[in-house]
UniProtKB/TrEMBL annotation:
This is SET domain-containing protein-lysine N-methyltransferase. Gene3D superfamilies: SET domain. Residues 2-109 form the SET domain. InterPro entries: SET7_MeTrfase (IPR009207), SET_dom (IPR001214), SET_dom_sf (IPR046341).
């Protein structure tokens, strides 16, 4: 993950930053996921971890490893996430040019089609 680093973020405490440029369409990170079965997900909803998982097949929860669960939300993101259920991964893909030193954000509402499950800082 030398192309990325975690640093303090004005958006939400800490964020994922590029250490090199990424072109639109380029995979920023391929994150394996740790899947928590649907029956156990309700327990997560009562903890801080609620804000860090992705909804997965069958009502399960998936934690994106690497930096995957740490990208901050923005309605004007530099990247998007793409779930691959068969491979058990989430890809973070640049949607605009990303320059070194810039925080990489994603839109967790998927263009407004999904509600946010957390309160964004800004």
């Amino acid at each position: 993950m030398s192309d990325l680093e975690i640093r303090p973020s004005a958006t939400h405490g800490r964020g994922v930053y590029a250490t090199r440029s990424f072109a639109p369409g380029e995979v920023v990170e391929c994150c394996p996921v740790l899947v928590v079965p649907a029956g156990q997900r309700v327990l997560l909803d009562q903890t801080l971890l609620y804000e860090y998982y992705f909804y997965w097949q069958g009502g399960a929860a998936a934690f994106a490893l690497g930096y995957g669960s740490l990208y901050n939300h923005s309605h004007e993101p530099l990247a998007r996430y793409r779930k691959d259920f068969d491979a058990g991964t989430i890809h973070i893909v640049a949607v605009r040019a990303v320059l070194p030193g810039v925080e990489i954000t994603v839109d967790y509402t998927n263009g407004g089609t999904n509600p946010l499950w957390f309160a964004p800082a800004t």
